Known about the structure:
- Belongs to the CENP-N/CHL4 family.
- Its main location: nucleus.
- It is found in: Chromosome, Centromere; Nucleus.
- The chain is α+β, with helices and mostly antiparallel strands.
- It has 2 domains: 3-78; 81-202, no CATH class.
- It has 8 helices and 6 strands, in the order αααααβαββββαβα.
- A hairpin with a 4-residue loop joins β4 and β5.
- α6 (101-115) packs across α7 (172-182).
Amino acid sequence: MDETIAEFIKRTILKIPMNELTTILKAWDFLSENQLQTVNFRQRKESVVQHLIHLCEEKHASISDAAQLDIIYMQFHQHQKVWDVFQMSKGPGEDVDLFDMKQFKNSFKKILQRALKNVTVSFRETEENAVWIRIAWGTQYTKPNQYKPTYVVYYSQTPYAFTSSSMLRRNTPLLGQELEATGKIYLQEEIILDITEMKKACN
Length: 203
């Protein structure tokens, strides 16, 4: 595990409140139960973080593993984001099945990486028939910035996709183009949603 990944995981863990840390780490499911039992969560947070980073180094955590941890953190704290909601529909002659999760994921990633070489795309499916997508943007000359990602939440049983407002505003039109290429979209409104409200909006 290189220093970039270690720093990414460290920053993510530091964001997590101590009373949520074990819950989020268990949901991450990267470190085993036995490994987590070796951590004294009553120590100062800095010591806890150092121990967790050491465990991640032993398991050779990848950028994908680190991105999954960040997605889980955001699932716990999605109320802190402002979300744009898109409604997608198939146009005449289009063969994309908006309700096929596998096809949606494959199409989304392929189209985005074709449009922008330096981009990291990570997926995490949930029990609510939703997939969380994390996009770390780069440029033609720079690696993806893992600290200013965009999140997309797509519900497979509905035509709705929710996108977090990107700090890198130049990427907003590109993201819209990717969703449009995956399925015809209409921007509905900008709203603040938590996961419960997202479910209501999809019903």
